[in-house]
Design goal:
single chain; alpha/beta; Rossmann fold; 2 domains; nine-stranded mixed beta sheet; two-stranded antiparallel sheet; globular
């Protein structure tokens, strides 16, 4: 914890306005709030702005204003990054490139890792293996990942919260693959492009079992349609068990039910990437 560290951080919410409204209707947590909770606990003196960058009527920071922040955090999004004719997408890619140019550190999860790659010249497509949801299993640190500060404090093999349909299929020049698993080969990476550095994960260190259970409740119809459950009632029962584990993280039966350990239940391990990003990239970049 950095009690008195005066940072200025922008959280970039990639969800369009109508999707955020559906989150409220379905009682789903907003991803910017999860990042905000982390920042309040780790850098409580930081000034944090939340920018809704998918909304065409919201102005984006640009030029010298980009350097008014010490760092940028990208949330997830339900947009599709390879829809090149969607201005809600293209304005975000242009912003990521501008932040790279400005040399300000970036971090992102899910949509954020796809943004890190595409804005620097990489490629994203629909994952032929389908949705990766709830828990990404057996994420493995690559040899580069074992040495990289982003994944310091993570086991060589670990799990992460996840919910996505697309995957990075081509890494840009300047990217280093840091973690992988069988479902999604690019689970964590570093991208160095122009003047900037972007650390990112496909999985969500900012999530908890409570927040994932809320999201699974809202995705019940899709999870049945895609063949993961027979009935929506089964999805809701799964989510209820997740809520129970969130309330009782030491319950051995619930841990066994989801086949999870401290890598997801201990925030010191689960959120290691976020602390490492602050300590190893943001603070040194600010002092440079």
């Amino acid at each position: 914890m950095h009690k008195d560290l005066q940072l200025s951080i922008a959280i970039l919410n990639g969800y369009p306005r109508e999707s955020r409204a559906r989150f409220d209707e379905a009682d789903v947590g907003h991803p910017h709030d999860m990042y905000l909770d982390f920042l309040r606990s780790y850098v409580p003196a930081a000034h944090v702005d939340i920018l809704f960058i998918a909304d065409p009527d919201n102005a984006l920071p640009g030029g010298a204003n980009l350097r008014s922040y010490d760092a940028y955090i990208w949330t997830g999004s339900d947009l599709t990054i390879y829809h090149a004719d969607d201005p809600r997408v293209t304005r975000q890619i242009e912003l990521a490139r501008a932040i790279y140019e400005a040399g300000v550190p970036q971090y992102g999860s899910c949509w954020g890792i796809q943004m890190a790659a595409v804005a620097a010249g990489g490629e994203v497509k629909k994952n032929p293996r389908g949705r990766e949801w709830s828990i990404a299993r057996n994420i493995r640190r690559t040899e580069a990942g074992k040495r990289h500060p982003l994944l310091r404090g993570k086991p060589d093999v670990y799990n992460g919260f996840i919910m996505h349909l697309d995957e990075i299929t081509s890494l840009p020049s300047g990217a280093t693959l840091l973690a992988t698993n069988e479902h999604t080969p690019v689970q964590a990476l570093e991208v160095k492009y122009k003047n900037g550095t972007f650390w990112a994960t496909q999985y969500h260190p900012e999530y908890t079992f409570y927040e994932m259970a809320r999201l699974i409740n809202a995705r019940a119809g899709a999870l049945v349609k895609e063949g993961f459950f027979e009935r929506e009632e089964d999805v809701l029962a799964y989510a209820r068990d997740m809520f129970a584990l969130a309330e009782n993280p030491d319950d051995p039966k619930l841990r066994a039910r989801f086949e999870v350990g401290d890598d997801l239940l201990d925030p010191q391990i689960r959120q290691a990437e976020l602390r490492n990003w602050i300590d190893e990239l943001v603070i040194p970049s600010r002092r440079a």
